[in-house]
Amino acid sequence: MMSSESAIHPFARFRVSLMILRTAIAERLMYRADFAMGTLFRFLPIVTQIFLWGAIFSVGTQSETKSIAGYSYEEMIAYYLLAMLARAFSSMPGLASGIARQVRDGTIKKFLTQPIDLLGYLFWHRVAHKLVYYTVAAGPFALVFFLCRGFLPEWPGGWVFLAFLASLVMGFLMGFLIESLLGLVSFWFLEVSSLLFIYMMFNYFLSGHMIPLDFLPEPILVWIEFIPFKYLAYVPAAILLDRYTGPELIQVLVIEVAWIIGLLILNRVAFSRGVKRYSAFGG
User: Fold this and answer.
1) Strands (E), 36-147
2) DSSP summary character for residue 158
3) Which terminus has fewer CB within 10 Å in the chain: N or C?
4) Rounded to 5 degrees, what angle do the CA atoms 56, 61, 65 make?
5) Which residues pair with residue 68 across a beta bridge?
6) Is the pLDDT of residue 6 over 60?
7) Where along the sequence do coiled-coil regions lie (predicted)?
């Protein structure tokens, strides 16, 4: 954080954050129809999943296809629905590339000369985006989940549901911090598109968005425990599908909190050191 910003009174800093949030919400509301249609069409692949896994589970005798990796047919469809919901929280399209573009064209210097924190600004802008998105998309989400209600598990206990909500919020924080950290790499490498492509490829596979992580062999699962991707899609879905026992659930959430704290520190260090070596170009 820049020294000019650290000198701001905490109440004034709160007012700045609130103003950023309100402005970003007003801006995002211009795209409310796009959010609603985009959400509805985003769930169209689930139709493919229903037919695909229906065909897979119908192959062979009933005893052979009763479950795959511990998932029944209904649980498999429920997993994809919940994973898509989790990904809607944790995905941050354009965040890393936007930071890299500002570094490259010099527009990032406005955050270095004004008492506005870059990461704070981007965070509240993303909060506004998600607030508007879920307000507008509540209808399409409700429709899809109502039509697929036969696949969904029974309503979980209070603590499990709270853990599920906490995992969604922390998934948003983790997704933001990972993408912002990738964007801050542009202080050292102006072109990060290849890095972002590699990240998106691994993210899609290792987050559990493509297939449940339970399908992967044990050696890969061991390594997945040491990287944060699974918290972006797999963990929220697994919590609601009761894949974690009580102690395991607490451990997973504690580790996720530790990841968030570690990523926040890395973001602050990367920004501080990046600014020191930065030379402004362009507008």
Assistant:
1) none
2) H
3) C
4) 45
5) 71
6) no
7) none
